[in-house]
Design brief:
This protein is α+β, with helices and mostly antiparallel strands. It is built from eight helices and 16 strands. Strands 2-3-6-7-10-13-14-15 form an eight-stranded antiparallel β-sheet, covered by helices on one side. A four-stranded antiparallel β-sheet has the order 1-8-9-16, with no helix packed on it. The protein has a two-stranded antiparallel sheet with strand order 4-5. Strand 4 and strand 5 form a beta hairpin. Helix 7 runs antiparallel to helix 8. The longest helix is centred in the middle third of the chain and has 18 residues.
C-alpha cells in the first residue's frame, strides 16, 4: 500500500501570506476520501474557499472508481450488472492501466482484484489461501480478458474483476489539479493518500518540499523519520512501500504487493519506491509496478523511461538501508 508522504508545510489552517509574484491568498483544505485523507494548498486569484467544490468533485470520483462504494460504476462492472456505462474518469483510468500493464510486462494489473480480495487487501472476502486456490484465481487475471468498447466493458469471463486502488488515488490528484488550473490557480499542492502533484511555488515563494519516510516496520507515524526530502514544482510524485500495510500469519509477514504472475506477495529487498513524473496516476502505477518487479528489474525499467525519475530504498545484507536513484532525481533531493 502506498504510504503517506509527509508534507513539510502547515496544512491545518488558512495560510494568509501571499506570493509576491502572484495575486491572491493561499488557502489550505483537508478532508477524507477513498478511505484516506487529502490535503490541498492553493493560491486563488479571488481568495475563494473551494472546500465544497473539492468534496463534490471527490464524491463524483468515488461514484466512478471506488470499489468500496457499492453504487459505483466499477462495483457494478465487478457485479456484472447489465448495461453499465462507463464515464470519462473510468475510461481514463482504464486506458492508462492497460498502457502501464503493457509497458511493465504485466507487473501492473488492475484485474488482480479477485486475488487482492482473497488475501484480505480489498473490499472482498478474505480467504484461506494455498497454492491450488491461488492458481484457480489466476485464471481470471490479465488485461487480455477485459476490454473497453465505446463506453462499455466486455469480459471474456464474468469472474474477471477490477481493483484500481493502485492508480486511482494518483488520478484523483490529477483531477483536482486540473480543476484548480481551470480556476486560474497558478500555485498549488494537491495530496491524496500520499500521492502528490504540485504547480508553481508555496506561500514563501519556494518550490514545494515533500518528505519521504524511512521504510521500516513499525514506522507508522508519517514524518517521524524521513529518508529524503524532494523539492519539486510542476511535477507529480507517488511512493509505494510494504512496511505499513501488511498482516502477519503464522509468523509470516504478508504484504500487499501481490505479483500478478504468481498471485503471491512479492518477496524482495526493495522497501520503498518513489516515482517523479508529469501525471500522478502514472507515477502511482509505476511505483506499484516497481515494487512488484523487485530492485534490479525496477532499476532497468525506470532508466528506460522518459521524463520519469525514481528514488529506491532497499535493504542490504546486514539489515541496513541503501538507496538508488536516477541521475535526474539528484537535483530534487535534499537531506532531512
Amino acid at each position: 500500500m502506498k504510504f503517506r508522504l509527509i508534507l513539510l508545510l502547515a496544512l491545518m489552517a488558512w495560510i494568509t501570506s501571499c506570493n509576491p509574484d502572484s495575486d491572491g491568498m493561499y488557502h489550505s483544505l483537508q478532508g477524507f476520501t477513498q478511505g484516506t485523507t487529502y490535503h490541498i494548498t492553493y493560491q486563488h486569484p479571488t481568495e475563494t474557499d473551494l472546500h465544497e467544490q473539492i468534496d463534490s468533485l471527490l464524491k463524483r470520483f468515488d461514484v466512478s472508481l471506488s470499489s468500496y462504494d457499492s453504487t459505483s460504476i466499477i462495483s457494478a462492472i465487478n457485479r456484472n450488472d447489465v448495461g453499465v456505462k462507463t464515464d470519462s474518469m473510468f475510461r481514463t483510468v482504464f486506458r492508462e492501466s492497460r498502457r502501464v500493464y503493457q509497458v511493465t510486462g504485466g507487473a501492473f494489473d488492475i484485474t488482480l482484484a479477485p486475488i487482492i480480495d482473497a488475501w484480505g487487501f480489498g473490499p472482498g472476502q478474505q480467504q484461506e489461501l494455498d497454492s491450488a486456490m491461488v492458481d484457480s484465481l489466476l485464471q481470471y487475471v490479465g488485461m487480455d480478458k477485459i476490454f473497453l468498447v465505446g463506453d462499455l466493458i466486455h469480459k471474456t469471463d464474468p469472474n474477471v474483476k477490477l481493483n484500481v486502488n493502485a492508480i486511482a488515488q494518483g488520478y484523483s490528484v490529477d483531477v483536482i489539479s486540473a480543476y484548480l488550473q481551470e480556476l486560474g490557480c497558478r500555485n498549488f499542492m494537491v495530496e491524496v493518500g500520499g500521492e502528490i502533484r504540485t504547480r508553481g511555488v508555496n506561500s514563501k515563494g519556494n518550490f514545494w518540499r515533500i518528505g519521504v519516510d524511512r521504510p521500516f516496520y513499525g514506522n507508522m507515524i508519517p514524518g517521524e523519520q524521513l529518508q529524503v526530502i524532494i523539492t519539486m514544482h510542476n511535477r507529480s510524485l507517488a511512493t509505494s512501500g510494504n512496511y505499513r500495510k501488511f498482516f502477519e500469519k503464522d509468523g509470516v509477514r504478508i504484504t500487499h504487493s501481490i505479483d500478478p504472475a504468481t498471485g503471491f506477495p512479492k518477496e524482495s529487498n526493495l522497501l520503498s519506491v518513489t516515482i517523479l513524473c508529469d501525471e500522478c496516476m502514472t507515477a502511482d502505477a509505476y511505483a506499484t509496478a516497481c515494487m512488484v518487479m523487485g530492485l534490479e528489474k525496477a532499476k532497468a525499467f525506470v532508466e528506460e523511461l522518459k521524463r520519469v525519475d525514481a528514488y529506491f530504498i532497499f535493504g542490504d545484507d546486514i539489515g541496513g538501508y541503501q538507496v538508488w536513484f536516477t541521475d535526474g532525481m539528484k537535483k530534487y533531493m535534499e537531506t532531512p
